[in-house]
Design brief:
The chain is α/β, with parallel strands linked by helices. Helix content is about 55%, strand content about 5%. Strands 3-2-1-4-8-6-9 form a seven-stranded mixed sheet, with helices on both faces. The relative contact order is 0.14.
Length: about 600
């Protein structure tokens, strides 16, 4: 018997919000961690001290022969750049201290018993022309995991498709084979018109079915979450009635290419201390990353109906990075937004540097739109800080390039250059500390525990992986600088990003296909080489940037290779802790066979 594609509708109003005018009333937040204001002030003051210490050393050195226009420009660029990296270092340092002393951050432990649940939770997976086998394999794995954890009577799974008509037919056929055998209800809905992209997809579900569910877990098509994690999050939501959203910190899975394995190692080794620091100062004003999170459905409906921004794209129209705005809107009404570090939350990573850059450009457009929302009525100041941090992340690359160009202008005009001729010790110490300090702390954290060290392949493997990761990161930094600067210029010229289907697999990118995509990188490298011919000292300082730009075609091509990634894995390079949940939640042979048959038919 063919299962019902959808349950009875339970409409829930989701009005569009206003960003200006009188803000709505708020509820009382009851999950604010103690001493939160003091923590944030400590973070801001420590960042300011580091930034001012370095910039003061720079100002003193530049003023030896008087302050000129280029000196002012250098200082205006240097101060925000060094403060940006200092902020990340201080936050990560606090996270390292918390983790190394055993003080795991998070506002509540994750309960396990399914008997504590009283309300229903919907699991939403929006999809858009994704791999049929991979998508439904994840659905099958998660539904079985929820049932194994004892949550079958409290969870429903919804596949919310924005796929094309042809792809939708394959999805529906596969769903019809999978749903009757699933241990929890699995529903499928495809929209004819893709209005509002992913946020519009979720909003349409809320308005039609949201009234029947106390909470909703929002996933991406590449997300994977264990049943125990989902049950635990639902139990927290029921025990903390003023929490509007819980965001997990997903780890990377299914890494195959060298680029994915590299990012997976960096995430596992350095990510926990950064995440712990973020949890420490975010408190009840944490962020939403758009997936692997649980949200109180009625709170989301009353707070998060997103209007289009005035004007045309790229800075008007649909709000691209909707998640951060939704977190700010929830907090505006008094709902707390927390981040928790738990096991059982996973996601995949783009397979190549090019695929990552495509996604990054879309994020850049969305995050720059946030600058228009900084003065929104009623936003908590920490929510405004999140929006500002997200937007400024994409302004650092153009600022770095401008700083380099100002340095070159200084030298070519014969002006005394304190950086190239001998940077002050304060500048060197703070810059190197902030750039590489978190990586060093991450390695220390990994090596400090015997079991953790062993899960990364042992001390020797960790050391080799960290050295290679740092070298690759140095090469990638100037590539990212040019790519993001190019994206910023395109956005300023009114060229919006496309919401295309994200590539999740690759057979590798041949060098001949990479070369046309890095013309600007190679041209800039050639210009820097010419500068180095005229001024060898400046050329020496520019050599890391030149090396990264010249190596960009080979870096992109080689890191897209699965065979090279597998070879390094056999050598123990970029080894990461195995995940029991990931192994247990692999799609069964029956599921894979069913999917293949449905796709063929």
């Amino acid at each position: 018997m063919r299962p019902a594609p959808l349950p009875p509708e339970a409409p829930l109003a989701m009005p569009e919000q206003r960003f200006h005018g009188n803000p709505p009333g708020t509820i009382e937040t009851r999950t604010v961690p103690p001493g939160l204001l003091a923590k944030r002030l400590l973070l801001i003051v420590a960042t300011a001290v580091l930034g001012m210490y370095a910039s003061t050393g720079m100002r003193v050195a530049l003023s030896e022969d008087g302050i000129g226009v280029l000196d002012v420009l250098l200082l205006a660029l240097f101060l925000p750049l060094v403060s940006w990296i200092a902020f990340g270092f201080v936050s990560g340092l606090v996270g390292f201290i918390n983790l190394i002393t055993g003080d795991h951050p998070g506002f509540a432990p994750i309960p396990r018993p399914a008997g504590t649940l009283r309300h229903r939770t919907a699991i939403l997976m929006p999809v858009h022309n994704e791999s049929i086998e991979a998508t439904f394999g994840r659905v099958a794995a998660m539904t079985q995991s929820v049932a194994d954890a004892g949550g079958a009577t409290f969870f429903d799974f919804f596949i919310l498709s924005d796929s094309s008509e042809l792809h939708g037919k394959l999805e529906e056929a596969t769903w019809a084979k999978l749903a009757p055998t699933a241990p929890i209800p699995v529903y499928y809905r495809r929209r004819i018109q893709n209005v509002g992209k992913k946020p519009g997809n979720v909003a349409e579900w809320v308005r039609r079915f949201g009234g029947a569910y106390e909470q909703m877990i929002v996933l991406d098509a590449d997300s994977l979450m264990s049943g125990s994690a989902m049950l635990g999050m639902a139990a927290i939501m029921e025990s903390k009635p003023t929490v509007g959203l819980l965001q997990t910190v997903p780890m990377i899975i299914n890494a195959r290419t060298l680029f994915q394995r590299w990012m997976q190692f960096a995430t596992c080794a350095y990510g926990p201390i950064s995440s712990a620091g973020l949890v420490w100062w975010s408190g009840s004003e944490a962020n939403f990353w758009g997936h692997n999170a649980i949200i109180r459905t009625r709170a989301f409906a009353e707070c998060c109906g997103l209007p289009d921004l005035p004007g045309a794209p790229p800075f008007g129209g649909l709000i691209q990075s909707h998640d951060m705005v939704e977190a700010a809107l929830l907090r505006r009404r008094g709902w707390s937004v927390h981040m928790v570090m738990i096991n059982g939350s996973y996601e995949e990573f783009p397979p190549t540097i090019i695929d990552h850059a495509i996604r990054d450009r879309r994020w850049a457009q969305g995050n720059l739109q946030h600058l228009r929302l900084l003065d929104s009525a009623g936003f908590h100041w920490t929510s405004r800080l999140h929006l500002l941090i997200g937007a400024s992340a994409y302004l650092t690359s153009p600022a770095w390039l401008l700083l380099i160009l100002a340095e070159i202008a200084q030298r070519l005009l014969g002006v005394h250059d304190a950086i190239v001729e001998g940077p002050p010790a304060a500048v060197l110490v703070v810059t190197l500390l902030c750039l590489f300090g978190l990586k060093a702390l991450g390695v220390i954290w990994v090596l400090a525990d015997r079991e953790r060290r062993r899960s990364f392949g042992g001390a020797a493997a960790v050391a080799k992986s960290a050295v290679l990761e740092i070298l690759l990161a140095i090469l990638l930094a100037p590539v990212t600088m040019v790519t993001q600067t190019k994206a910023m210029i395109g956005l300023l010229l009114g060229i919006p990003s496309n919401w295309s289907v994200q590539s999740r697999e690759t057979a590798g990118i041949p060098l001949r296909e990479v070369l046309p995509k890095v013309r600007e990188h190679l041209a800039l490298a050639a210009a820097f080489i010419v500068v180095g011919v005229f001024d060898p000292v400046l050329g020496l300082w520019l050599s890391p940037v030149i090396a990264g730009l010249l190596a960009s075609p080979w870096l992109i091509s080689l890191t897209s290779s699965i065979s090279l990634g597998d070879r390094l894995a056999r050598w123990g390079i970029f080894a990461t802790p195995p995940s029991d949940d990931e192994r247990k939640m692999k799609p069964s042979g029956f599921v894979g066979h069913t999917i293949a048959r449905a796709s063929a038919s």
